[in-house]
Write a structure and sequence with these properties.
The complex is a heterodimer. By secondary structure, chain A is of the alpha/beta class. Chain A is 32% helix and 19% strand. The chains are: A alpha/beta, B alpha/beta.
Chain lengths: 161, 168
């Protein structure tokens, strides 16, 4: 009896095996979810890091068109930077006579010429702007787009649930 | 012996049992690659659009002697909304919709005003929109979202208003 209390306890070795079948089940569920949310085209556009889109309820789906992105530090046309800003402020020398922005005018004109050569005629422009963009900048951008007949605007927003 | 014999005879003489093992490890590899790719392209926020138009550079008037009525909305910095009505043969009217007691935009007041104008002027085709320079894009989108449920919104092309560069 006394000896039994000093007996060395045997360690039981346990073998661990990976349960692959439940892992396959989990992966299948995750895959189905991601496939459901997978989509192609402009509806999957991703704004840059410093652009926070406003929210809206009564929305329609995004349509194809040229994309103009306005962030605090610059304006991008089809993901290429065309104008630098400093906290939405632009250089007054950039103003054209009609109140539009010269660099935006040049960039839109070049894109339009390329599209015309390719036989594509469109009047739609997708505007992806930060929620704090002032109207002082927006109206210049709209004037620039209207100069080249891009009069149909799609204002990108985050859909409110 | 007899049970085994009957089983053999029903499945075919000399048929051997077949074991089929599913190679789950390869399936896991494929699923891992697919999931990694889809995670990289997945968009977890739903991006949609609010439709609007901008006034064209050289607006054309189909019948200059009888232009259609024009209703303009302008957002002011103190959350007031100015509604201007221009009808051919009448003096322009301007109405101011004050802000809500909590300092917010009075979208309900604007909606009621525009509904009344739409019923009064059946030829109304769009609402012209403009704002003070300091108004933020968020407020503009909220207003456009409210107005477009009544009539399409057209941003005023302020380049058409001045012959000289407008002030900053």
């Amino acid at each position: 009896m006394a000896l039994s209390s000093f007996a060395v306890k045997r360690t039981v070795q346990e073998e661990m095996s990976l349960a692959i079948t439940p892992m396959a089940d989990v992966f299948t569920v995750i895959l189905v979810f991601l496939l459901k949310s997978f989509s192609t085209g402009i509806s999957s556009l991703t704004p840059t890091q410093d652009v926070h889109l406003p929210e809206a309820r009564a929305v329609s789906s995004l349509l194809d068109g040229m994309k103009l992105e306005i962030s605090p530090n610059g304006i991008l046309l089809n993901d290429a930077q065309v104008m630098k800003l400093t906290q939405f402020q632009f250089d007054p020398k950039q103003l054209a006579e009609d109140g539009s922005l010269k660099e935006i005018n040049d960039a839109i004109r070049k894109e339009k010429e390329e599209k015309t050569l390719a036989g594509s005629v469109e009047s739609r422009m997708t505007i992806v702007a930060d929620r704090k963009t002032p109207y002082a900048l927006l109206k210049r951008v709209f004037t620039s787009t209207a100069n080249y007949d891009y009069t149909d605007l799609s204002l990108a927003v985050v859909e409110e649930q | 012996m007899s049970a085994i014999a009957s089983a053999e005879s029903s499945s075919g003489k000399g048929a051997l049992p077949q074991d089929c093992e599913l190679n789950i490890a390869s399936i896991i590899d494929c699923l891992t690659v697919l999931i990694t790719y889809l995670l990289a392209v997945a968009s977890f926020i739903s991006i949609a659009a609010v439709e609007a138009q901008v006034e064209s550079k050289a607006p054309t008037i189909s019948n200059p002697s009888d232009p259609p009525p024009l209703i303009s909305i302008r957002l002011m910095p103190d959350k007031r909304i100015e509604v201007s009505t221009e009808v051919s043969g009448q003096a322009p009217e301007k109405q101011t919709i004050p802000s809500l007691p909590d300092g917010g935009w009075n979208f309900l007041g604007v909606t009621q005003n525009l509904e009344a104008a739409k019923q009064k002027y059946s030829m109304l085709k769009f609402i012209s929109f403009s704002a003070d320079n300091s108004i933020e894009y968020l407020d503009i989108v909220k207003t456009v979202e409210t107005i477009k449920s009544i009539l399409p919104v057209e941003f005023a092309n302020e380049g058409n208003l001045w012959p000289s560069p407008p002030s900053l």
